[in-house]
Specification:
The structure is a homodimer.
Chain A lengths: L2 H31 L6 H19 L2 H14 L7 H18 L2 H21 L5 H22 L5 H9 L5 H23 L16 H15 L6 E5 L5 E5 L2 E6 L6 H20 L15 H15 L3 H14 L8 H7 L14 H19 L8 H13 L25 H21 L2 H10 L4 H10 L9 H9 L6 H15 L2
Parallel strand pairs in A: 1-3
Antiparallel strand pairs in A: 2-3
Chain lengths: 506, 506
């Protein structure tokens, strides 16, 4: 086949594969939201079967042959043309897929499934001894995968690259070290402030029906299109793109913590705005999918924290929220804004505020690096965890369930994934700063827009700078083009400092 | 490969194919119940892509080769052993699939899609001229398919066989002629009876929430397992088996016709009881799927009409229904039972009662046969329809929308399918009679069980006689084993006559 025909074959193959992937996304959504209980065994076997089918299609030798033909011709082009970008990303995915031996892939999937179940069983009783063998197996297999995939710098890079293409430990370490140096003193200043948030506002009873209305109104306000999406309820909130015109979010409801449902919904709506902004015409090709977990998280955190925890947002939204939520009637704006931004060191990452959140991620990144470098053995994790927790947050977990056993990620095979959370925060701040500059008025200008209920110009800016590109540019290149700057913790620290000085009267 | 290995390969291939089919079932369910409006274009393309993938797997030449090897050995066995039955059905499906040329399959799918859209557009205005070319194309393609598939008797058989394996026009004609001979006089007797049902009971206002509770309670009462299924709302009620442990039904709600939602739900629950009763261990193989549309319809009609329109059912259910539905308080049992069984000739099949329903089907069967035999041209259908309607039901449609254009089936390519509705009624009556005999007390004995809220013994009998077998036996053989009798209209006429003589005091 000539190069163009090879390209067309690759595209058709990729789109057909993506339709299977889209069916898997719906199977997952359905499993979490609608599936009857007795359907679990069938669904698990079905997902395994279709995942195997996907893997076979992705490692089909014809893909490698077509890539070899298409590549020669098309990579001479502008490296960021649609065709060149698709070929580059197909090649990246194909190389990774074929380098991992089938038996390793199967063993890893199996270890992850067993590990997750073992974690669920062991965590409530902090039963480290029963869990450790599963974790050891996972770490062993992930290290084996890193060797199979290959790396220029160190093994960690081979894993991180799956979630954040092109990113490396060496690239992250100085940025994260700088972040840590500035975060800890800011946290100390906040904890020394005389002003104290009243978080009891947030534990007032709010009926679930009112919370659902609140979440829908907030998601719609920031631009989530309910004609092209849904909001449902799940144990663990998530966002999923079934395909163009069909992006779904979920949240979790607690009658005595309406803020969890609300910010959960807005966080997922932030992911969904990205997904709804990717051009449908590119469905099934790299130009039609999100580029990385870090960039995805930048969108969810930007809308959750920089928009929906801002004073401007609540100037607009509090009167509307009080229409749904009787418990919010008469609450003062400043009290509410302080409550939803309360800072307090805590043991659990998923409950952490904006200031301490990244310290939790730094802790995990340090331990993952040490594990992959062979400097730390899984059996020594509990001690290393507690030591890092004391050093970063000044806390000691009373139970392993509140410490090294709190997250499912490692148990489920996700090693090399945590830094994307902090990358998301840093990218979000860089984007927010650039948007403020370009839309006019900086952070203050954006806040005024939010107070007027005007979120569309920020969304349009993100659409044009980020969403529309899919995976055309690698994450760092995409961010460079969007913000005019290299990855850096400066914007995030400027954002946090200004926000918390005002909130806590520092 | 030796025969047993060929069999194992076929089984694995079939199960993997069935997982894709199960994903398609979920895509269809989701599209009808949950999908956001903007997802339609993506979903249509996705369904087309996955359907193409299924077709390619079903016509894979390796299937033919493996069948040739497995067949020689296994068909020597008991022809109804699991292995022999699976090989027989795989062969049947493979032969049919490969005999239909790919371009004919594509043209038929396209004509059906276009035909359905044309029908939707043309029906409201009874615009026969704009619809006719689409119908002509469908009839032409279906006749071409019959020739491609082949037949022993006549072309109609090749189409009917897709829906009702082994059934033929010659096998049906005497049974349906006998049915017609007896139905018309019974209808005349009923219409001459002085007793008149009061159907206004059924148009009393019932809030949708109460109707939902009513439908759930009725479906659960007859044995639908909500741990292994769901009930949702759609424009057109259906039942779908996603897989073992996951069978879903839908119904349609109208505030002024609670009987539509209720009997719709019970009809679909009848289908679902069959689906829930098929052993999950056989998933993906012929022994793990329903055998025919006629047998499926026998289950839905049995539970809808013979159970849920019986006096015994309402002796049990009316007090419970009145708990959900204020409009039913104080309604007399006999008035309600007569209302839900009211007989009146009508133009629209889907609104027809038990007595006239089969006359509608006979009308369509006669026209389909004439079309396939070339004795009738599509352009002459309106006249032929009206003439048959006068002769069978004594009515003349004022508009084609109430006549030849009322059903979507032909427009959507479904020619040769209608008789399965009447087969369902006849099989239902034969099963019901046999169950009454074997469980004791005949129809009266069953009625007493229903009055006591006892539906489980009938369900267990159907499980053992029908559900558990999947497609192990061809439909006629399955029914012979279950009822001890050949297909016949006698049981149905005995059932109708006894029921309506009592109801109308004949």
């Amino acid at each position: 086949m000539p190069p163009r025909e090879s390209y067309d074959w690759l595209r058709a193959h990729a789109v057909e594969t993506a339709y299977i992937g889209s069916a898997l996304a719906l199977l997952h959504w359905d499993q979490s939201t609608k599936m009857p209980a007795a359907g679990h065994a069938h669904r698990a076997a079905q997902v395994a079967s279709l995942t195997g089918l996907l893997h076979a299609r992705r490692t089909d030798p014809r893909v490698g042959e077509a890539l070899a033909k298409a590549r020669a011709e098309l990579l001479r082009d502008d490296p960021h043309s649609e065709l060149a970008a698709n070929v580059r990303e197909w090649q990246r995915a194909y190389d990774r897929a074929v380098r991992i031996p089938a038996d390793l892939a199967v063993a890893t999937a199996r270890a992850a499934a067993l590990g997750e179940t073992a974690w669920q069983r062991a965590r409530p009783g902090s039963d480290w001894r029963s869990f450790l063998p599963y974790l050891e197996e996972i770490v062993r297999l992930r290290r084996e995968e890193a060797e199979a995939v290959g790396y220029a710098g160190e093994p960690y890079d081979a894993l991180l690259d799956e979630y954040e293409p092109g990113e490396t430990a060496a690239g992250l370490e100085p940025v994260l070290a700088g972040l840590r140096r500035e975060l800890v003193p800011l946290l100390d200043r906040i904890l020394g402030a005389p002003r104290r948030p009243d978080r009891t506002l947030l534990s007032r009873h709010v009926p679930l029906e009112a919370q659902r209305a609140l979440c829908r109104e907030a998601a719609a306000a920031i631009g989530f299109d309910f004609e092209a999406g849904r909001l449902d309820s799940t144990a663990h909130p998530f966002s999923t793109r079934i395909g163009p015109g069909d992006v779904r979010i979920t949240t979790r409801y607690n009658e005595h913590a309406f803020d969890e449902a609300l910010f959960g919904a807005i966080h997922e709506a932030g992911h969904a705005l990205y997904s709804q902004g990717i051009p449908g015409a590119h469905f099934g090709t790299p130009c039609g999918v999100s580029v990385s977990l870090g960039v995805h998280e930048s969108q969810s955190r930007l809308w959750e924290n920089m928009v929906a925890r801002s004073r401007g947002f609540w100037r607009h939204f509090l009167p509307r929220a009080a229409g749904h939520v009787a418990a919010l009637e008469g609450v003062a704006l400043d009290d509410l804004v302080l409550a939803v931004n309360a800072v307090r060191p805590s043991l659990i990452r998923t409950e952490a505020d904006e200031v301490t959140y990244n310290l939790h991620v730094l802790l995990r990144f340090g331990l993952e690096l040490a594990l992959l470098r062979g400097q730390l053995q899984p059996r020594d994790l509990p001690g290393a965890w507690d030591e890092a927790m004391r050093s970063l947050l000044g806390l000691t977990p009373p139970e392993l369930a509140d410490g090294v056993m709190q997250d499912v990620h490692w148990a489920a095979g996700l090693v090399g994934y945590f830094p994307t959370y902090t990358l998301g925060n840093l990218y979000a701040a860089q984007l927010f700063e650039a948007a403020g500059r370009e839309l006019g008025g900086g952070a203050q200008g954006l806040d005024e827009r939010f107070a007027a209920g005007e979120f569309a110009s920020l969304l349009e800016w993100l659409r044009a700078k980020v969403h529309v590109h899919g995976s055309r540019y690698a994450p760092r290149e995409l961010m460079r083009r969007a913000t005019g700057a290299e990855l850096d913790h400066g914007a995030f620290m400027r954002y946090l400092t200004a926000k918390y000085e005002a909130l806590y009267g520092l």
